[in-house]
Amino acid sequence: MGQPVRLEPGRWAEVRAPCRRAAEAGLTRWQTGLLVVLGLLSVSLWLGGHLFPVLRVGVGAAILVLTTVRIAACLTPCLEGPVPAPGRGDQVWPVYTVILALYREAAIVPQLLAAIEGLDYPRYRLQVIAALELDDAATIAACRRYGRRLGLQLAFAEGPEPRTKPRALNAALAQALGDLVVVYDAEDRPHPGQLREAAMAFARGGAGLAVLQSPLRVRVPPGAPEIARQFALEYAALFEVLLPFLTRLGWPFPLGGTSNHLRRSVLDAVGGWDPWNVTEDADLGFLLAARGYRAGMLRLPTVETPTPAIRPWLTQRSRWLKGHMQTLGVHSRAPAVLGWRGAASLVLCLGCGIAAAALHGPMLALLVLDLIHGGIGGEASGILPYDLLVLGSGWGSAALCMAVGAGRTGSPARWTSLGLAAMFWPLQTLALLRALWQLRFCPHHWDKTEHAPDAIPAATPRPLDGMAESGLSGAGEPVPSPSRPRRHDPAHRAVG
């Protein structure tokens, strides 16, 4: 049996937290000039009466290309690979650092730490760090109360700006001892075998494999509003269908905000996360590709809870869109560095998402106005058969992706939710307007998404008394948890 990982006194203070500042600068001169040229071109087309015909052809062609990609992704089989069985005690595993991103999450800390305790990974090879803000007294107290059994270490983000998740992650990275690093959010419940699967995949993938993304699977509680079901369907389409398809093609993709498994050496080499980018996950995915590294997908998922109402959904989505615009701006400064695969994925994953958010609201408004004019005024419809083909293929392929993705999670989609999806898409336009306003006036502001414990929580870790010690923050091995049967969670079923 190996030796416990020990934190050398003062080691964390000797390591400077990596810091990239790519998103701080904003647009370059040539990017600003390009936007001005496009704006002038749009005005001239509008004055000449050609803007809408050009948009109709261009947007239609983009939707048809996206439809083709979606159908190809749905027809591509699930990712294959061995799901690790519980390991033997004499097997040597790499040291793993688990970073928990926490801010104003005191109520959910016990649930999260119970999920981390349930990870099937040798405790003596595990380091757990909570990335915190110094002024978050309630969360700090909860971590100290419930985290001793895990040997939980606390890392505090320093400096006034920017108060973002990636800044806190960099502070935790400065204390990391592991060869491998994974990031989890407060509401996460990772599959117990996820770390073992990732360690095995890194061992097989070679040094060029830098990151592995676990599929994020949303559990919708009974009685949840329809927006929660739409959130779950969107995640199912992305993490069960589209990202595995891009992985098979060997294309990079924007990482999810959690359950990213990374090589520590690669993180150090690229400078960690960009604290000025509010979607540091998407940025890191393309940065790794620009440096010549590969990304992959795991099979064992992480279960999350959806945003519970429209208002927090809009807040979260506006932050995502703002960050995607920042990431698109950063990586379009030198698109040749990404190569054609990386540039195509950047446009497909981020550019198309931003454009879709801009178009959903106006397109629905035009359709409604056309129907009103046709029904009341008896005027001929301005909708052409080409428009119906484009809209039908776009909606149909999106619904197909959601249905296939939901089926792969073991929770088939409701037909009513698939039918209502297009009615919720215009909300993205509202989120984009808010994102654009923030991008102008507070580009690095982090909109906090509130989380609450599950209605039926996992087992809560028992707080230890003040005499208990941990192997990572004190002397000796971490205190072992009492043996108990692991709960079977159908949402954790492996894909395939």
Write the layout of secondary structure elements.
Elements: H1 11-14, H2 29-47, H3 51-75, E1 96-101, H4 109-117, E2 126-133, H5 137-146, E3 153-157, H6 165-173, E4 180-185, E5 189-190, H7 194-205, E6 209-213, E7 216-218, H8 226-249, E8 260-263, H9 264-270, H10 280-290, E9 294-297, E10 302-304, H11 310-331, H12 339-376, H13 385-409, H14 415-424, H15 427-441
Parallel strand pairs: 1-2, 1-4, 2-3, 6-9, 7-10
Antiparallel strand pairs: 4-8, 5-10, 6-8
Please report the distance between the alpha carbons of the first and last residues: 34 Å
Q: Find the count of extended strands (DSSP E, 2+ residues).
A: 10
For the report, how would you describe the main beta sheet?
Answer: 7 strands, mixed
- Which series of helices and strands comes N to C? HHHEHEHEHEEHEEHEHHEEHHHHH
Trace the largest sheet across and list its strands.
Answer: 3-2-1-4-8-6-9
Strand content: 5-15%
* Shape assignment: globular
Rg over alpha carbons: 24 Å
Helical stretch tally = 15
Mean pLDDT: 83
Helix content: 40-55%
Low-pLDDT ranges: 1-18, 456-496
Structural class: alpha/beta
